[in-house]
Design goal:
Chain lengths: 112, 109
């Protein structure tokens, strides 16, 4: 089976812009979770989608949003980018009731 | 509040020198504890899931154990290719997933 794929792999934006990141889960996996990883804060949970519904949400401002499509592919959007949004954004898929998550390679976002 | 604390932050071993990494947690109802390995510039790679105290899982030179308050990742006779950051994550009954800050392991030949 192909692994989790994320596009793009690298992105450079300027403050105030918005960005959309894409994630394709492992075939058959219905749950997709998004994380932000920074050197100072580590891996922080953003949100989880299951069957096109947001099932869980972390403690991030409303500028961070996401959605899931009927084929389980997911996108996350960050509006009004800030310098502090520079991070590695990771997507992980799982197949409930199995809870182990399988991560993609991440999208490295740099905000200038 | 759920918390996950990993120690040490960094660990340097000689090839063949066995050691253990610690993951202490507090959670309101444990659904599962997960260990991952992360190489620089890559996403975390799944290693183990543990569900209940007393459970153990093994894979090559790695063995994970779980008690009611902590988990250990034992590395036996490590090799340089075991160098990576090892992450512990705890999932609560409400599905919240919380990661520790990780232990950065370096194995010198």
């Amino acid at each position: 089976k192909a692994g989790v794929t994320q596009t793009p792999r690298y992105l450079i934006k300027t403050r105030g812009q918005q960005v959309t990141l894409s994630c394709s889960p492992i075939s058959g996996h219905r749950s997709v979770s998004w994380y932000q990883q920074t050197p100072g804060q580590g891996l922080q949970f953003l949100f989880e989608y299951f069957s096109e519904t947001q099932r869980n949400k972390g403690n991030f401002p409303g500028r961070f949003s996401g959605r899931q499509f009927s084929n389980s592919r997911s996108e996350m959007n960050v509006s009004t980018l800030e310098l502090g949004d520079s991070a590695l954004y990771l997507c992980a898929s799982s197949d409930p009731p199995h809870n182990e998550q399988f991560f993609g390679p991440g999208t490295r976002l740099t905000v200038l | 509040e759920d918390q996950v604390t990993q120690s040490p932050e960094a660990l340097r071993l000689q090839e063949g020198e066995s050691s253990s990494l610690n993951c202490s947690y507090t959670v309101s109802g444990l659904r599962g504890l997960f260990w991952y390995r992360q190489d620089p510039g890559k996403g975390p790679e799944f290693l183990f899931t543990l569900y209940s105290a007393g459970e153990e899982k093994e894979k090559e030179r790695l063995k994970a154990t779980l008690t009611k308050k902590e988990s250990f990742l034992h590395i036996t006779a490590p090799k340089p290719e075991d160098s990576a950051t090892y992450l512990c994550a705890v999932q609560a009954n409400n599905n919240d997933m919380r990661f520790g800050a990780g232990t950065r392991l370096t194995v010198k030949p």
